[in-house]
Amino acid sequence: MIRAIAWDIDGTLIDSEPVHHKALVAVSQRHGLHIADDDTRFIGVAMEEVWGVLAPQYPAGLDRYEWLAEIVDAYIGLVAELMPIANAPETVHALAAAGLPQCAVSNSARRIVSANLKSMKLDKLMRFAIAREDVTHGKPDPEPYVLACERLGLPPRDVLAIEDSAVGAASARAAGMPVMRLGVDFVDFDAVHDFALGRRMRA
Asked: Residue 203 has what pLDDT?
């Protein structure tokens, strides 16, 4: 039985990956590191892990927390470029109207999570949002989704995770949740609506 939905945000609800990458490219350039515009290594990856990969290539004196703050500031400065994934916000509204609790589970920093949800006017429809600061280990570790299920007060098998990346899907599956992955399990968000409500009605 599906009793709640846990939404990934970046790349699932909102087309933010280009903005994330643009922020990373800009900040890296500022510190003397060139990252290609088509570099896909960091899609869906927590910024702390991105730092782990790139830190040896940055100047020795660069502080991790200073770098993370620069990334967040650069992203917030580009919020006007964000666009929702087609039909995703409408699906959130439809599921809310049907009485299905929803939350957001992200690898991004709290300020980015808040900016993303507010830009789509979905912040009021989410019971809560899990951000990177809320957990010790980000996706693909199961901790973010385990925490979400605990806050919902539901067993993982009853919470459907909606993801776009292999990293996020691995996190949700490791937490014991059913997963629908955009571009793999569905391309039309009506499928999410029908599956979630169909499973709910049949249970």
From this structure: 46
Prior bond to 178 cis, omega within 30? no
pLDDT tens digit string along 183-201? 999 999 999 999 998 865 4
Residue 160: DSSP 8-state = E
Residues in the chain: 203
Residue ranges covered by each domain of the chain:
4-15+83-202, 17-80
DSSP 83: -
CATH 3.40.50.1000 matches 4-15+83-202: yes
pLDDT in tens, 22-38: 999 999 999 999 999 88
Read off φ and ψ for residue 136, nearest 5 degrees: -80, -40
- Average pLDDT of span 115-129: 96
Does position 150 have pLDDT exceeding 70, yes or no?
yes
* Cβ atoms 23, 78 nearer than 8 A: yes
Give the closest residue to 17 by CA, choosing from 93, 112, 101: 112
Starting at the edge strand found earlier in the chain, the sheet holding 159-163 runs: 129-130, 102-105, 4-7, 159-163, 179-181
Neighbours of 35 (CB within 10 A): 18
Nearest to 9 by CA among 105, 127, 83: 105
